[in-house]
Each structure stands twice: as structure tokens, then as C-alpha cells.
Fold:
Amino acid sequence: MTVDVDEARIRERVAQRRQQRRDGVDLWVELDGLDQPAGVVRAAADQTDDGARRWEVRPTTGGAWTWLFDVADWNQRVPELAAVLSDMGHAGSISVPWVDPWFHRGSDVPFPTAYLTHRVDPPADEGPFNAHGVPEPRWGVPEPATERLLTHAVAWALVPGTGAHVGDVVRTPVQEHDAVPLISPLLARRLSNLALASTPRAGGELRRSVGFSPFGQTWWIDLDRDADPTALAEHTQRLLLDHAPDLQFGAVHLTYPGTDESEATTTSVWRRHPHLWSAYVPDAFGVQLVTGHHLARAHDLSRWRVTEVAEDRWLVAAHDLAAWFRPLEPSAVRSRQFPDPALRARAREDFGVMILTRGTAAARRPQP
Structure:
């Protein structure tokens, strides 16, 4: 019994990772008769030269996602792993995961995006802090809320007919039953562009995506090009309601998925001051979920639909969602002409000092 090595595909993946300035390469190990072979692959890797440090194995389904940390001698290390597995009595193959290793193409069309910030424990203003007095980045969401969030994210992102993966540039294939235990450990690492996403297995644009950032931030995007933008915004708004008791803030706004451009991303001031998220908002958006602390700072919300959706949680939504989410031309969003600048200016007046400014942030720095 032997485990074969697909040298051609691995060589191609190594070249791709080197172009991305990655020192390692992702592999996919399939063993006959084993749906989740990670334990066997881990045991085999530990028998190779310096295997405990050179290999990472994740408990994926249908094969074992395996990372070789140093590709300088991959053409020796991979056959060595295959030989150990063969000597253990296994047959199968070592190739590469189906997931495209390149970044997803940026969208040329803006989509309604749900932005959620979960409550963290301990609160951000309790530290730990870095040398500049800024809270150190961490996930921070209590385990029960994280479990609810991940379970929902997996069910929401895995659209029928697609394949799903989690990661940044390096992506691990996931299925509905194994995604939560695969994502959870990644939240404890340095969060940078971590996302759960679904795509057609044949390639192409993202279908749905959930991004994760420090202090309980998530972005949920449904890239349904056939849907009416206003209907999509209303559907996306449900995410805020589903998680309302666990949130300290939420919003729905337009973004260009896969790019740095957006109609209203959270401002740099907002993102640098997580200890103020439960009392201030980043800007005036068409849909927001806020607390009583937020509402106490509003100037006049009589032109808005304000609905209590959970204890101390209110949904503040525009009466005309189309004015916020249905541009006549996508370019109007990119040029900041949609929503109408006058509409945005009035909304900012309505929200008043609820919106976080540089001056407020400077005056309310956390005390390490």
C-alpha cells in the first residue's frame, strides 16, 4: 500500500506561495477509508525529521489540511511524509487543497454589508494595553456568544452548491460540521483578514463572506447580484436582530467586497477606540443597532424608525432604505455621491454627538 505524491500540483502551489512571499505551502492528504485522517497524518508527521516543528495538521473532512512551514526542501519532506504513511499501512495521496490560493477579485458592485461588534469580556478599557496606551488587539468575545456567532456564520455562509473555506491568504477548506472547531482556534491568533467564505468550487466570485477582526468585529456580506439591493439590506438587517443581545453596536452599509473602498466603513478613529463602541457610533448609516448610551447622545431621531428589539438594544432605520442602499449607478457610491450628500448631512445632524469625533476620542482615552 502506498501514498502517492502529486508533485506537479504541489510544485505549482509552492510557486504560488513564493509569489505571495510565504515560506510554507498548504497540502491535502487523503487516506483510503478515512474521512478525517488528521490524527494519522499528525502521527506520521511527528515521525519525520523535526516533524513536530515543520508540520501543522488541521482536522478537516475528506482529507487532512496540512501545512509545511518551510518549502526549501519540500521535494524531500513531502515524499518522506508519504513514505511514513505508507509504512503505517495506508494508501492514498498528497496533493493540494481545492481552494484557490489567490486573493478573491474585488467586486465592481457595492453590496449591503452587516457590521457587528459583539461585547467583549473584559471590556476593552480594562486592557491589556500596549506601550501607547491602546488596548491590545484580541478577540475577547465570551465563549457562549462566540459559539452562537460561529454556528450562525457557518450556516449562513455555506450556500448550497458552493465550497467554503476559512483563513486569510492561507485558506482551509471547511464543511458545516467541522467549521466551528476549525475557526475557533484561529480567533486566538493575531486576527488579520480572517474570513469564512463560500465560492463556487469551479472558481469565481465570492458568494457569501463573514470577516473577523479584533474586539468581536464581524462583517457579513451576501454577494447576490440578482437580488434587489434594498431587499438585500432588509435581509442583512436580520443579522443585527438575531445577535442583538450580544452586540454593543451594529450597522448595515454599502461596501465593495474585496476592496478597501466603501460607502461608509468604520472610521480609523472609531477602530482605534474600541472602549467607546458601546456609547458612540462611527457615522450615520441607513440601519444601525444601538444601546441606550448611544441614544442618549442623539440630537433628534424623529425622522427615523426607532424600534426596541432586545433589552437596551434599539434598531434605528431610515424610512426610505432605497435612498441608502439602491444607487442608480455603482460609481455614485465610489464617488461619494450616494447616499445623497445632503441626506447624509441631515442624518449626521440627527445623530449629533452620538458620532465619535477625533476630539471626543482624544478626550476619552482609556486609563491604563
